[in-house]
TrEMBL record:
Organism: Sphenostylis stenocarpa
Similarity annotation: Belongs to the PPR family. P subfamily.
Entries under Gene3D superfamilies matching the protein: Tetratricopeptide repeat domain (1.25.40.10)
Lineage: Eukaryota, Viridiplantae, Streptophyta, Embryophyta, Tracheophyta
Protein name, per record: Pentatricopeptide repeat-containing protein
Pfam families: PPR, PPR_1, PPR_2
UniProt-listed PANTHER family: PENTATRICOPEPTIDE REPEAT-CONTAINING PROTEIN 4, MITOCHONDRIAL-RELATED, RESPIRATORY COMPLEX I CHAPERONE (CIA84), PUTATIVE (AFU_ORTHOLOGUE AFUA_2G06020)-RELATED
Example GO molecular function: mRNA binding
PROSITE patterns: PPR (PS51375)
NCBIfam families, sorted: PPR
Amino acid sequence: MIHVIPKCSTANLIEHSLPTILLRYFSQTLTFPSHSSSPHAPQPHPSAEIFKSGTQMGSYKLGDLSFYSLIRNHASSLDFVSLEEVLHQMKRERRNFLEKNFIVIFKAYGKAHLPEKAVDLFHRMGGEFQCKQTVKSFNSVLNVVIQEGLFNRALEFYSHVVASKNYIHPNALTFNLVIKAMCRLGLVDQAVEVFREIPLSNCAPDAYTYSTLMHGLCKEGRIDEAVSLLDEMQVEGTFPNPVAFNVLISALCKKGDLARVTKLVDNMFLKGCVPNEVTYNALVHGLCLKGKLQKAVSLLNRMVLNKFVPNDVTFGTLINGFVKQGRASDGARVLVSLEERGHCGNEYVYSALISGLCKEGKFNHAMELWKEMVGKGCEPNTVVYSALIDGLCREGKLDEARQVLSEMKSKGYLPNSFTYSSLMRGYFQAGISHKAILVWKEMADNNCNHNEVCYSILINGLCKDGKLMESLMVWKQMLSRGIKLDVVAYSSMIHGFCNANLIEQGLKLFNQMLCQEKEVQPDVITYNIILNAFCMHNSISRAIDILNIMLDQGCDPDFITCDIFLKTLRKNVNPPQDGREFLDGLVVRLVKRQRTIGASKVMEVMLHKFLLPKASTWAMIIQQLCKPNNVRKAISECWTRLSC
């Protein structure tokens, strides 16, 4: 006898438990018994109820496809309790477990960020559920673990499975995942070994394999090896995709090797790979790093002509490039262009512009930009607030900077090290050192870490205030905490020692700097401090020795360097000299070392002081500037401007 099932009592039950294709069949053949239990009793899961009903009445027995549909539905809703119930129901009914059922569950564990559950179920597949694992399920679990960033765990899982007697043979996807994990861990040499073993497993690396390994090599600074891999890739018959080219272009752009970038882009076109947004962003970034902003703008225009829409990254990179070149006003014009194209500047763009304009002394323009940003609904964050506070401090408006800091805190934005360091610098520049020290203490009270910048500002401020002993205490604390010493900290302490007539102790620190890595090498400010100290004490020969070290280390003298020697030669030498011979000789030495920019700065000083160089020096300069390569470069840049 067929019973008509009331729609209100069955619709939800069936709709959430069975595939759509079975709805009509069940609505016509199944009778669900009514439950007289209390409403407070635990209700059975819909799928479990269907299993129970169907088994009791014998009217329908669920097939394997139905179980797969149930697994897929529960997996999509991340209902792992019901998934376990379905698996155990299948086990009781001695159903055949298919690998695709487990792969669906593995993916669900991945979405739920439960990689260990996926690993555990993989191991249960063969024993508890009698389902043979293959490379498909193996790769699925391996990918889940890697997506969680557990690269060591992924390699451990890989080694365990491959070494066991599961007879799972890795395929190309497996090797890609393993190489990715190794590269993320910085194990590039091991990744190369795995890469070389791929052919032994009757597999061939694909474009993704090459791209992953190239990315790992580039992160380790092994760009030449990555480029060689691109050549090998093409020899082996694997056509590189845009991803492979973008990895190399991005790495070379960061390195500033634009000549090789140009060749790569040409090669990219020859291989039929069309540059995409990633390519253009990398190129714009590279040009900005090299200060070639006009070419970056031209590239941006070409990007638009090729139907690519510049995104926030493109515009942000270009704006940041202008700011770093001291052209924040031009960066603001780029922001206007960005808005005309329907984009809105984000907080990072505004912070870079506000900070840049303040550093260039264009505080009013920076404030206009701040009001414009707030007016457009762009909520300022810690970065933007800190940029404004820095600008106010540079203008000497310390009370206003404090007010902005209070507003910042009231809106829930915590000041960072940059915020506090700006205030400290402002107070030191205003000669209010005790307030700068209070800011230092405030940082500690607010659990804001003192970084190397904060320490450098404190040491510099104390040294300029004549508090050498206090600055030495801060210096020792910096060393004891393992905080990296930077050029500013070294230069400040050297300056403090020299001002206290402790030149030899300053010289020891200077010699320490010479033994440090490139980032902590003395800059022109450091050299000028030492040079000035020796010249003030009539130790001209020692000053000349320092100047020779300066030139040997590739640091060019500036206007201050020239002034230091000119004053010494005119006041402390008998008979007095005007410095013409000295500066002329310095120009010749710089030209011979092919340091034209440094030579031109010294020449500029000579002309301002009416100290005309020798005719032979003029001839040498002109010859250097008019070398064929330089002429060709100048012509090329001229044509570039004309074509824009």
